[in-house]
Amino acid sequence: MSAFLPFAAGEPAGGAALDQVVIATGGAALATGLLLWLILRHRARESSPLGRLAKLSERVSGLPGWAALPSGIAAVSLLTALLGMYWDIALHIDEGRDAGPLANPAHYLILAGLFGVFSAGVLAIALPVRERPGPAAVRLGSYHAPVGGILIASAGAFALTGFPLDDLWHRLFGQDVTLWGPTHLMLIGGAGMTLIGQAVLLAEGMRAKREEAAARPSAPAGPRPLISPQLVTAARRVGLMGGLLIGLSTFQAEFDFGVPQFRLVFGPLLVALAAATALSAARVWIGPGGALGAALFFLAVRGFVGLLVGPVLGQTMPALPLYLGSAVLVEGVALLLAARARPLAFGAAAGLLVGTAGFWTEWAWSHAVMPLPWTADVLPEGLVLSTIAGVAGGVTGALIGSALRGALPRPPAARLAFAASVVAVGACVGYGLATSAPQGVRATVALTETRPAPEREVRAVVRIDPPAAADGAAWVQVTAWQGGGLVVDRLQRTAPGVYRSTEPIPVHGNWKALVRLHDGATLAAVPIFLPRDEAIPAPEVPARARFTRPFAEEVEFLQRERRDDVPGWLFAAASLVVLAIALGFLAALAWGLARVARTGRPPRPPQPDSRTPVGRATPVGA
Predict the structure, then answer these.
(1) Under a CB-based contact definition with an 8 Å cutoff, are residues 513 and 507 in contact?
(2) How confident is the model over 254-274, as pLDDT tens digits?
(3) Tell me, what's the pLDDT at 7?
(4) In the chain, what are the domain boundaries?
(5) Which residues of 35-67 are buried (b: 16+ CB within 10 A; e: fewer)?
(6) Whole-angstrom Cα distance, residue 530 to residue 533?
(7) Rg of the chain over all Cα atoms, to the nearest angstrom
(8) Would you say 60 and 68 are in contact if contact means Cβ atoms under 8 Å apart?
(9) Which of 21, 41, 518, 543 could form a disulfide bond with 529, CB atoms 3.0-4.6 angstroms apart?
(10) What CA–CA distances, in Å, run from 534 to 1, 9, 13, 197?
(11) What's residue 610's pLDDT?
(12) Does domain 442-558 have CATH number 2.60.120?
């Protein structure tokens, strides 16, 4: 897998070496063969390792084995992939690009985790041999498979497909060294959306157990579960919704680490979208306290992962959103509106509050912990985008929660609400992606050496001309990275257009250092120091004691590895192919949720015969 963020000099800047491709392909084939062998043995025999593990999982959780065992495997696998992803991002920020996909220890965690998720979905499909796993099950030949298993396997396959496509992408276009590269979004999006498949599988397992108990009320009880099934199910539901919040929050990782390559308006937009979607779904599906439980689960798991990546593994530690303010708002709305009886109204109202009042709670939190806090430059458009994304996310989350309960609104209303939400989010993202190039802005930089070569460090005084170009900017800062750490120095304003650094800036070895200016739709940068990179190739930009350089679009420096000799139509066509795959995947998730919802509705009570007069007694024995 390629790195998510800009790489250092000296390592390959295109696709992986062929020997590593062969090794990775061989390992994947071996793991797939082992999985198929276990499945074939299970389906051919009454007793098999998979069957015994499924029975043990059923005894522990009280859920059917075809739901319990894959759920446990998926949970552990997804946590493994999550740790690997944040470790991988931190490694590439601090150390730069590696010698290949097999030279990075974090890649093994990501690959193992995503393959484990895919395997969990395949096992959920394969474990039911003679039984039908719930009313929503899909017929596959001579047996039935749970919808949740199909969705988990699809999400895992979608994410794993990102690996070979990512290598092909970089061979064509060079390294698009950002978290938001199209194939990178496949990886993190597929992993995050497995939580919906897992929630569907849990809902199917809960429903199957209830129907089994109702069909055989006098049947002798089986082995007593080791843990209360109600407790396991409640914890699992909170964990799944908290996990969904984690998955949706991974798109914010560049802001969490302090190296965003996109406009600051994406910060509030993404936070509101993630919070409204996951917390509304949690409140509708779980009930009172569901939103708070999901937010607390997010803080615990993401905080733990951050501590592992930072103090334990010694890399840059990511910050994280708070979400507690939004959770309280969602719970409050649910007290005023019937969240389950009127899910669309509840979702819209909850999302509206998350996007407005929740915006200000996250604003305050960003100033407490974020490397680049939200500033006045983000107003008013950041608040407007946050509100739109919040409403769209709240409606979508309410639909997800209702589907898991088997109580979706009428199909025309549900389809219209979901389509409108997708269009609204797409419009917000499109607006945020629109940027403008700097016009006639330059910086005069004076460097004062604080540490001599070979590990040279400097302090900088930056004079921006014209001075008004930086007035009210979202940030004027120096970012230095990939030389063995990360420095994000928010420059101190000393006079109109004049700024000075507050900490030493490394300008040696593989370090890269830029003055970055973000004002409105402009994302511009001036290099202080860039190392020579033979793999691109790119010359050194020296850190002279004094220089004047024009501001240019910062993507030129943040993504030096991108090729500029590729036809624009080819890049557009490749992006559309990835988008089509992603839309197909989202359609599959929507289909699965709708199928489970339709089959989960309780049967209507029998209606009285209109021909029988009301109040007339029926003769005994008639």
Answers:
(1) yes
(2) 999 999 999 999 999 999 999
(3) 37
(4) 1-211+566-599, 244-409, 442-558
(5) beebbeebeeeeebebbebbbebbbbbbbbbbb
(6) 9
(7) 27
(8) yes
(9) 543
(10) 21, 7, 9, 45
(11) 40
(12) no
